[in-house]
Amino acid sequence: MLSIKSLNQYYGESHTLWDLDIEIEQGKCTCLMGRNGVGKTTLLGCVMGLIKPASGSIMFKGQNLLDVSAEKRAPLGVGYVPQGRQIFPMLTVEENLQIGLPIRKDKSKQIPEMVYEMFPVLKEMKHRRGGDLSGGQQQQLAIGRALVIEPDLLILDEPTEGIQPNIVAEIGDIIRKLNKEIGLTVLLVEQKLPFVRRTSDQFVIMDRGKAVAKGDLSELSEELVQEYLTV
């Protein structure tokens, strides 16, 4: 579904992504892993059009996203949950969710009931301001906002960061349900190995801007963990 080929990106004279090749298979949950600073969030920025690559291609459902402006990528079916959630704190929960409605292909003006079924707390608190929610609730809101557009690909950048354990478990359940029951393709950036093993089918490890290992999750060996993931 998402095919990244020979992708290069620079910050000034710093070469941050090096001839990166990654394939995200339709219907799978793929986890992008690596220590801080290896280029994971930079890669997601390139996919979403927030960062311009120097060369290469990013194909989504057969279309090169590098030919598509940033604001037109979500309507193609890419849902994005950025690191740090980035909800609108002064808007209500309902208003945060409504932001995605104009992007929907059917132009529906109603928040999909599926979002509230996945996250009942959002329905309970839909008139409360986003900034008044706990960190875990804000993360659920950020995921719900991405789901409003009914994406074909859901990208999540470290969704467990700073979240209490019980909400982490709920988010893991939601990702599994979206992927296995609904068939949504998921690209997950995550560092917590128990969460990765619970949610993901495949992995890609990045180091110094390169993809150094990839495969089925069953192939994620202790040697790879020690060499590339242990701080």
Question: Care to describe what's here?
Answer:
- The chain has one domain (about 1-230): 3-Layer(aba) Sandwich (Rossmann fold), CATH 3.40.50.
- The protein is built from 8 helices and 10 strands.
- It has helices spanning about 40-50, 95-100, 115-120, 120-125, 135-145, 165-180, 195-200, 220-230; strands at about 1-10, 15-25, 30-35, 55-60, 65, 80, 155, 185-190, 200-205, 210-215.
- Helix 6 (about 165-180) links the parallel strand 7 and strand 8.
- The chain is globular.
Q: Could you give the topology of this structure?
A:
Blueprint: E1 2-11, E2 14-24, E3 29-33, H1 40-48, E4 55-60, E5 63-64, E6 78-81, H2 93-98, H3 113-118, H4 120-124, H5 135-147, E7 153-157, H6 165-181, E8 185-189, H7 193-199, E9 202-207, E10 210-216, H8 222-229
Parallel strand pairs: 3-8, 3-9, 6-7, 7-8
Antiparallel strand pairs: 1-2, 1-4, 4-5, 9-10
